[in-house]
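Protein in question reproduced for absentees:

***
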Amino acid sequence: MSSVGLLYVGAVLFINGLMLIDVVPAKAAAAMNLFVGGMQVIFPTIIIAQAGGDQATILGASGLYLFGFTYLYVAWNTLTEAPGEGLGWFSLFVSCCAVVYGVLQFTMFADPVFGVIWFAWAVLWFLFFLLLGLGKAQLGRLTGWFTLWLGIFSGAIPALLMLSGGYVTGPTEGWIAAVLALVLLALSWALGKPRAPGSDAPTPAGARVAGA
């Protein structure tokens, strides 16, 4: 994923995380989803059209559509007040693809950090599937917090490091990224626990309206 695209993936994940924990109203998040979703569909199309059949370039661009379609789907659900089940099941498809892209980062691109990032995204989109596709409302705040943290730590920070020439990857950095991802998931679980012991948390308004 390009550093510029990754920066705005971080931005939209941050906004959508705030939406899922009821800080930002769903309709207030729609514009960012439209902007970034459109960018993540138009840019890879241009890259693939200019790739000259280079499979590595095409492979690298192909994953951007998973994000673009997700954000456009969120915007559609928000603006039309459509139910979230379709987005939920699409998120399961994205989660499975993210696992494959993560493996390829280790095997083809020798980039353990981005391998871990793709695996973290796979977990996040699987949470979207559970929340929206299967109606696990009690996961709403957990999913929101994890979305927010990944917007920062899997989007904005790596993108800024890449743009400034400070991005470094390798086995040590990969292990650090893996530990950080687990810490963020645990923190999200702690922050997202149901507020009333023994009862499910209410579904956040953002999840009811727009999904992820």
